[in-house]
Amino acid sequence: MTFVETSFIRPKSYSLINNKNNDLKLIIQGQGVFLFENPVNNCCCMFNVYDYKKQNGLRIELNETSVKINRLPEFIPLIDENNNQGLSDKKGAYYWLSVDSQNQRLYVGLGEARIENAIYEYIFSFNNDEERKNIKSFLESLVTICFSENNVFPLQLLRDPIIKKIPLLIKNTQQLRMNHIANYKYLPSSHLSSTAQQLYYSISGKKFILDDKDFPHFSKAIEYSIATPGMWCYERLKAKSTEFDKDKPNILETYLRITLNQNNGESPGIPYVMEIWPVGHFSPIHNHGNAHAIIRVLHGKINVKLFPFLCDEPDTVDPFSEVQFVKNDITWISPTLNQVHQLTNLKTNKNTCVTIQCYMYDEKDKVHYDYFDYLDSKEQKQQYEPDSDMDFIQFKETMKQEWENRPKVINIINKKISLFFGQSKK
Fold first, then answer.
1. Fewer CB in 10 Å around end: N or C, the chain?
2. 10 in a domain, yes or no?
3. What pTM was computed for the model?
4. Strand pairing of 381-384 and 372-375?
């Protein structure tokens, strides 16, 4: 899957419907994904997908308990025996239809358009090659989506259909083996969008490390600063305990944002951010302003929970995936995938986690939403404007000074021990 994925991204205030019939065209005839909302939480959401003549097609209907798809004009039901879910009553919910003529499959899903979030699946069956060709020809003819804005609010069209799980880890194309492609364990770096590739190649190099020749004890200095009262990291984390909820301080719901470079207007906040996660610390559940992002672990481990959508109702939406990334792992965020997550440095880990995260709006994004929406302790949706705790150059120098000026008694004891053992040998 290559991420040349989207025909449009739009806020609700911007209409993409330029004709009176409320018709949309698939980017590629016979395939793609249509994302939509149920605008006023109706008990039913219905639309059709037709061929050019609007004679043959599909009727898609979501109600409160199920998804129903019928083949038109005969109204032949295409039944998924396992489907027991339809429209959601959760705030923030949205839906998608995937049409896949090459593999003769239909999916309907809730939240991010990915196989993990599918609530309906239909695989066309056939008894011989002629039947298969007829089904494929029918699906390949589908091109026009017809709907009423009373119960369908169109959000986005994606070029490629939903086929299988998309890897979270990126592998440099130069390091890929045939088994990697066959098993689809890694996302090749060449499959990232052009925007994401810019970010990936900026931070994926072998010399892009924390403990470099200039300061080989950088990670140790950060650990020391976090653990020691009076040091910069310790005091800054304490001061941020109310950052995400002024009424309910929580020191564990804090992390440090050390920024590199300046905000150039192409990302939510400064595009390059080194984030520092002490053991046991976590972020709120949040999204990323529909931006692209690349995240690399520089030190330690980080646990990531992915959610289908951001819902401001307490504990009502479960994560669809949970994974722990380790040092040098690189993962990704696109405007439509991996957007809503929660990061945690688990209490069972031993070391602080340090990541580098970089962001950039898609070339077609004309909105530039400058905030990360997040859920506070009351599960209410709030806006977070990405800020900076300190510039990277200044931070590195601060850590150097704290490390060099740490209590000399430790050094004196170490020297005495060395002298003692040296004299004993004599």
1. C
2. no
3. 0.87
4. antiparallel
